[in-house]
Amino acid sequence: MNDLNALRTPEGTALLDEVRGTDPAHELAVATRLRREHPAELVSAALGQARLRQRAVAKFGAEDAGRMFFTPNGVEQSTRAGVAAYRARRMRELGVTSVADLCCGIGGDAIALARAGIRVLAVDRDPLTAAVARANAEELGLADLVEVREADVTEVDTAGFDAVFVDPARRGGRGRIFDPEAYSPPLSWAVGAAGKARHAALKVAPGIPHEAVPDTAEAEWISDGGDVKEAVLWFGTEPGLVRATLLPGPRTLTGRGLADPAVRPVGRFLYEPDGAVIRAHLVAEVAQEVGGGLLDATIAYVTADELRPAPYASAYEITDHLPFNVKKLKALLREREVGVLTVKKRGSAVEPEELRRKVLPKPHGPESATVFLTRVAGAPAMLLGRPA
Description:
This protein has 388 residues and is of the alpha/beta class. Helix content is 33%, strand content 27%. The strands form three sheets. A nine-stranded mixed β-sheet has the order 3-2-1-4-7-9-8-10-11, with helices on both faces. Strands 13-14-12-15-18-17-16 form a seven-stranded mixed β-sheet. Helix 7 links the parallel strand 1 and strand 2 (119-124). It starts with a helix and ends with a strand. The model has no long low-confidence stretch (mean pLDDT 94).
């Protein structure tokens, strides 16, 4: 807390500007020089904050990250800005004008909500985390819309707010927590809190079992740039609806209650559904859109004879279908003059880097290719192709 206060003084602000972008390899020399004119504790705090800001660029962008304050856990656990902005837009479209943001962390979601014009009560029980959230709202000019309160979220009265947003802690002393009832606070408490507002959104791990989703909730899985980031349980929208949202975009695929696709022979094209689609159990919807079926009943690869627009999957043209055989693949790659090989796998125990070393020990050749290590109707197989 003292470090945060010191960094927000004129001297601390000037020091943060001076150490911005410092190469970690040069930190010792920079620290030695600065300690001649500034307190050692302040120099250390500034360099530590500079490191955190560099890490935060990937989530918040260079402009915001360069102005915000962070804790190590805050950088690790905060929502990516694009995801938070998408959720804030959904809130706004629902007519929400005020949100109780419970377990607000360093304020990433509160910032996005405020930028959408929504008034926010941001609550966290950790004194330093709450202070950082307050500082971030002030630094970004959002203090008039964001009230930060240091409190136990289970004791906060959310009456009078249009919506509740809960982002429970999903990490413990031993790493990630997979049991929703072991979250802090537990999912059952969050669901109860959601029932007290007209709308609610509960952020949960993307691996949440579908059977753990309450019947009263809409479940949405979100990916950003192809990486699955989170799942959100929405209340006050469409109970029972399942959706996968791909960012940027957004592109949203909703469930239609389809049966599992049939297994069929390998076609000319292979479609690799986005991870959010797979987590949401919407592979059947992708198969229907492209007129395809599955390579294997247990593998989320879709094959089809036609190339169709596939906004929820990546399409590849398949040139070769082989039983798994490293020597045959090596010979085929040499024949095709492949020098760059992308290895993808589902349902295979082979490590991509190990296979790449075996089949392309000395990469050469002007061509590129993608090999899929998978199963076709239960049998280990290799599919060679290229992006369609």
